[in-house]
C-alpha cells in the first residue's frame, strides 16, 4: 500500500495484515504518511536486505506490528532481529520458490521467525505477479504456518480454495499486484470480492 486515501479504503475491508514496502527500488516504495488504521490490522514492513537499524527505525516511525523479510536475510540476521524486537512483533521470512526449491533450507529458520511466506522466484525480490506451482508445497516438511503468495488474483480463487482444503498449515493469503490499478494503488472492490470468496 502506498497512498493514504487508498490505505483507508482498503483498511475498511479489515485485512489481517497490510504491507508497506521499504525497498527504495520498488514502484510501491512507501515513504508515508500513514493514516490511522483499525487496531486489528497488523501493519507490516516489507524489507529487502535492510540493516537491523533501518528495520528498527521504520518499526518505531510507523508503529509496525510485523516485519516481512524479502531478501537474503540469514538465520543469524533473523535471530538478532528477534532478540532485538519486542516479542509481539511478528517476523515473516520469505522464500522465493521455483521447482528446484530445497525445503531443507527452512530448517534453521524454524526458531528465528514466526511464519514462512512462499512467493514466486522472479526477476524482482517480490511483486512479480506470477504464481508458482503449488504442488511443490506437497513437500513442505514443517508445521510452521504459511503465508501463500505470488501472483494471486481473482482468477486464482478456486485454486486457493482447493489448497485451503489440504493439510498444509496455510495461515494467510498475501496478494499484491493482481489487485492494482497502478503500482501501490489497490482496487478495493476487487479485494472485497476476493475476501468474500476465499473459504478461510
Ligand atoms: O511488491 C513489491 O514491489 C515488492 C518489492 C520488493 C520486495 C517485496 C515486494 N512485494 C512483496 C509482497 O509482499 C508481495 O505481496 C508478494 O511478492 C507477491 O506479489 P504479487 O506476485 O504481485 O502478488
From TrEMBL:
The protein's Enzyme Commission number: 5.3.1.24
Catalytic activity line of the entry: N-(5-phospho-beta-D-ribosyl)anthranilate = 1-(2-carboxyphenylamino)-1-deoxy-D-ribulose 5-phosphate
Annotated coiled-coil segments of the chain: none
GO molecular function terms noted in the UniProt entry: isomerase activity
Top enzyme class: isomerase
Pathway, per record: Amino-acid biosynthesis; L-tryptophan biosynthesis; L-tryptophan from chorismate: step 3/5
InterPro entries, per database record: Aldolase_TIM, PRAI_dom, RibuloseP-bd_barrel, TrpF_fam
Keywords in alphabetical order: Amino-acid biosynthesis, Aromatic amino acid biosynthesis, Isomerase, Tryptophan biosynthesis
Superkingdom: Bacteria
Chain ranges of the N-(5'phosphoribosyl) anthranilate isomerase (PRAI) domain: 16-196
Family: Belongs to the TrpF family.
Protein name stated in the entry: N-(5'-phosphoribosyl)anthranilate isomerase
Organism: Flavobacterium ammonificans
Gene, per the UniProt record: trpF
